């Protein structure tokens, strides 16, 4: 077991998969000579050369589509977006080309492509650079969407994504790249579609993913001081969603709070609440609560930004509400 | 900048045709097949046998036929939604194309794609794509894969002139030139994006000029002459295959029909006289006349050829009509692979 940063775990996954399969290549802005805007691709140009580590112009729509075409031609592209905020320019290719190719070709054309990059807010980057896109992407049939929260999951999920014969969206986090954690040695694969209980508990389920894992864990610490045992369930995959794991946890705790970085309207939490009310209605002791980003564009001011984001305090308040502790 | 790009605006280079008499006859047959197929598709559409959008190629046959004659079987072709003709010439049978238009299980995309999404990956026909200009990057990606694998397959991308106003066109031409990809961007300039004349919405109306911005070879081509299209594409294919250089071809053509089956042939955006004037340049009549003059074919042989093609197309309609709908369980297959 080695201790690695999230960044280096992703780097290891890329390196190992590129060593394993010559058809895997990395393409995106600043991935080569500059060593990656966030240094995820550090050293890869030197090891694999410019044929397989391809620097692009700032043209998200174009290079995302070139990636899709390369996958049609039998390669396994990994397309890096400097952030998912910029990937919005490429949504036509992700949605209309990558996600639908297999279906509209009647099953003839596989689409083994990975689109990856940091998602959601960092610090004081203001409205256009702080958006969480998972509910947009997870809406689309034909895509898989993963959002690892730890170095081990980052490595294992990216390796799964690269080996998958379907288009996989990998949502990373700028604020996660320096996070350190234990990563198993050797071949470490995390299957897509499996949630993970990061902290077992009995009184309330905190459903989270990506950066909100840390939020939920801090909330669970605070709740423990209040004699509340919170179970922290990390989704890891947004699509497919591990519905069984969510239901199993809620059937045990009878209460749930869903925490996400995105906005509330039509968010991921809405999908999870739908699942719980439909399939675990009789197990619930309280309506499910959601903690999201405030329903506003992200402000620049530090204090305003902090109050817009999901926080441990908001999660604790929501948990106390489903436990009727303040009634 | 290459010399070719500098002379992008030059008129059609004159050259002796490399096409053999046998190729002439083959191209005549292919153009007639597309014409008769599309006429039948129009009938079937009117009868409600074909649904949704159906964009016909009548008038533009010389472009698809001339260009594909310059390709090898293993080269890639990728198209917009006006792709019935190219699909037929790339080797998808009339039966499989017509069945797809009818939405049947025997269609080339199992009835899931329809008129705008014909596919035959084994034959290198990489689809009809429905978002204007959205498939242009895919063409460069296919060419990227050829170069990456060290194969000498090239990719020809058909798109209409309206796609030139789309960002994907410019982003892709730039990268294809920077990375020297073996791709031919073949713009079928039929003058109208649906009902909007190109000159009303484009600052630069000679599309070949865009090649200068991307240091790319280019040619302006008469799209009503199948031999001219063949020769220009042959040069571009050679450039792609041997030097791995992209080319932009602006092929001037004309669509006789409306934008799709639900649109008028003429009216507010073009006159009936204009359409009739263009029909006088018909590519099939032109080639047939030339072959008759050369003594390569006589009227009796031409009539026999036409009758044979009409029979093939009628058989395709019968086949499509009698084919089963997709199994209801097909609704949920092909979303993801295991």
Short structural summary:
The complex is a heterodimer of chains A (327) and B (338). Chain A has 327 residues and is of the alpha/beta class. Chain A is 37% helix and 18% strand.
What do you see in this structure?
The complex is a heterodimer of chains A (327) and B (338). Chain A contains 13 helices and 14 strands. By secondary structure, chain A is of the alpha/beta class. In chain A, the strands form 3 sheets. Chain A has a 7-stranded mixed β-sheet with strand order 3-2-4-5-7-6-12, sandwiched between helices. In chain A, helix 2 (44-48) links the parallel strand 2 and strand 3 (53-55). In chain A, helix 3 (60-72) packs parallel to helix 5, helix 9 (212-225) packs across helix 13 (312-322) and helix 10 crosses helix 11 (268-279). The longest helix of chain A has 15 residues, at 6-20. By secondary structure, chain B is an alpha/beta fold. Chain B has a single domain (3-317), classed as Thiamin diphosphate (ThDP)-binding fold, Pyr/PP domains (Rossmann fold), CATH 3.40.50. In chain B, 43% of the residues lie in helices and 11% in strands. Chain B has helices spanning 3-6, 21-46, 61-68, 84-89, 94-101, 136-149, 167-178, 198-201, 210-213, 226-243, 272-279, 283-293, 299-322, and strands at 76-79, 125-128, 155-160, 183-189, 192-193, 196-197, 217-222, 247-252. In chain B, strand 3, helix 7 and strand 4 (183-189) form a beta-alpha-beta unit. Chains A and B meet through helix 3, helix 5 and helix 6 of A and helix 6 and helix 7 of B.
What distinguishing features does this structure have?
heterodimer, A: 327 residues, alpha/beta, Rossmann fold, 2 domains, 7-stranded mixed beta sheet, 5-stranded mixed beta sheet, 13 helices, B: 338 residues, 6-stranded parallel beta sheet, 11% strand, globular
Q: Helices, strands, pairings?
A:
The complex is a heterodimer of chains A (about 325) and B (about 350).
Chain A: E1 2-5, H1 6-20, E2 24-28, H2 44-48, E3 53-55, H3 60-72, E4 76-80, H4 84-87, H5 91-98, H6 101-104, E5 114-118, H7 134-138, E6 144-146, H8 151-163, E7 168-172, E8 180-183, E9 196-199, E10 204-208, H9 212-225, E11 230-234, E12 237-239, H10 243-253, E13 256-259, H11 268-279, E14 289-291, H12 302-308, H13 312-322
Parallel strand pairs in A: 2-3, 2-4, 4-5, 5-7, 6-7, 10-11, 10-13, 13-14
Antiparallel strand pairs in A: 1-8, 6-12, 9-11
Chain B: H1 3-6, H2 21-46, H3 61-68, E1 76-79, H4 84-89, H5 94-101, E2 125-128, H6 136-149, E3 155-160, H7 167-178, E4 183-189, E5 192-193, E6 196-197, H8 198-201, H9 210-213, E7 217-222, H10 226-243, E8 247-252, H11 272-279, H12 283-293, H13 299-322
Parallel strand pairs in B: 1-2, 1-3, 3-4, 4-8, 7-8
Antiparallel strand pairs in B: 5-6
Helix pairs in contact in B: 2-3, 2-12, 2-13, 3-10, 5-13, 6-7
């Amino acid at each position: 077991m080695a201790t690695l940063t999230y960044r280096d775990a992703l780097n290891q996954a890329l390196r190992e998969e590129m060593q394993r399969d010559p058809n895997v290549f990395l393409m995106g802005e600043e991935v080569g000579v500059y060593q990656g805007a966030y240094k995820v691709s550090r050293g890869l140009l030197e090891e694999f050369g410019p044929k397989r580590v391809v620097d692009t112009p700032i043209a998200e729509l174009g290079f995302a589509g070139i990636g899709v075409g390369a996958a049609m031609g039998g390669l396994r592209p990994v397309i890096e977006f400097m952030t998912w905020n910029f990937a919005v320019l490429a949504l036509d290719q992700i949605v209309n080309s990558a996600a639908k190719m297999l279906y509209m070709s009647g099953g003839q054309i596989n689409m083994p492509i990975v689109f990856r990059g940091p998602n959601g807010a960092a610090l004081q980057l203001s409205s256009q650079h702080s958006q969480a896109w998972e509910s947009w992407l997870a809406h689309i049939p034909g895509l898989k969407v993963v959002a690892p929260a730890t170095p081990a999951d980052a490595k294992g999920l990216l390796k799964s994504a690269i080996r998958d014969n379907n288009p996989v969206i990998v949502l990373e986090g700028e604020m996660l790249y320096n996070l350190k954690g234990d990563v198993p040695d050797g071949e470490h694969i995390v299957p897509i579609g499996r949630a993970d209980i990061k902290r077992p508990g009995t009184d309330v389920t905190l459903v989270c993913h990506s950066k909100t894992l840390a939020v939920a864990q801090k909330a669970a610490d605070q709740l423990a001081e209040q004699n509340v045992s919170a179970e922290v369930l990390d989704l890891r995959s947004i699509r497919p969603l591990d519905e069984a794991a969510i239901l199993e946890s809620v059937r045990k705790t009878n209460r749930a709070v869903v925490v996400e970085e995105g906005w509330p309207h039509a968010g991921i939490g809405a999908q999870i609440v739908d699942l719980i009310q439909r399939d675990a209605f009789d197990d619930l002791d309280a309506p499910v609560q959601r903690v999201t980003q405030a329903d506003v564009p992200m402000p620049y001011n530090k204090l305003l930004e902090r109050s817009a984001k999901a926080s441990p305090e908001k999660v604790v308040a929501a948990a106390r509400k489903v436990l009727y502790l303040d009634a | 900048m290459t010399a070719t790009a500098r002379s992008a605006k030059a008129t059609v280079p004159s050259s002796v045709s490399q096409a053999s008499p046998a190729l002439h006859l083959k191209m005549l047959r292919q153009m007639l097949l597309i014409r008769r197929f599309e006429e039948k598709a129009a009938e079937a559409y009117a009868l409600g046998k074909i649904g949704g959008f159906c964009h016909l190629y009548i008038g533009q046959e010389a472009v698809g036929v001339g260009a594909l004659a310059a390709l090898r079987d293993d080269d890639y072709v990728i198209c917009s939604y006006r792709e019935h003709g190219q699909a037929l010439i790339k080797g998808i049978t009339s039966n499989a194309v017509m069945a797809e238009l009818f939405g049947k299980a025997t269609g080339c995309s199992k009835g899931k794609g329809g008129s705008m999404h014909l596919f035959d990956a084994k034959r290198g026909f990489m689809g009809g794509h429905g978002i204007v200009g959205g498939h242009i990057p895919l063409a460069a990606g296919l060419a990227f894969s050829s170069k990456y694998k060290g194969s000498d397959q090239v990719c020809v991308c058909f798109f209409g002139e309206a796609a030139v106003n789309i960002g994907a066109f410019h982003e892709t031409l730039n990268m294809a030139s920077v990375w020297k990809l073996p791709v031919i961007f073949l713009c079928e300039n039929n003058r109208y994006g649906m009902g909007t004349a190109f000159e009303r919405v484009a600052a630069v109306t000679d599309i070949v000029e865009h090649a200068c911005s991307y240091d790319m070879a280019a040619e302006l081509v008469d799209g009503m002459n199948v031999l001219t299209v063949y020769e220009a594409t042959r040069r571009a294919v050679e450039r792609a295959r041997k030097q791995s250089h992209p080319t932009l071809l602006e092929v001037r053509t004309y669509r006789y029909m409306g934008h799709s089956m639900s649109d008028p042939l003429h009216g507010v955006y073009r006159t009936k006289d204009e359409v009739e004037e263009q029909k006088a340049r018909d590519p099939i009549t032109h080639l047939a006349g030339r072959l008759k003059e050369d003594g390569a074919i006589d009227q009796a042989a031409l009539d026999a050829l036409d009758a044979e093609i009409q029979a093939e197309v009628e058989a395709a309609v019968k086949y499509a009509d009698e084919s089963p709908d997709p199994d209801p369980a097909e609704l949920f297959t092909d979303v993801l692979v295991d």
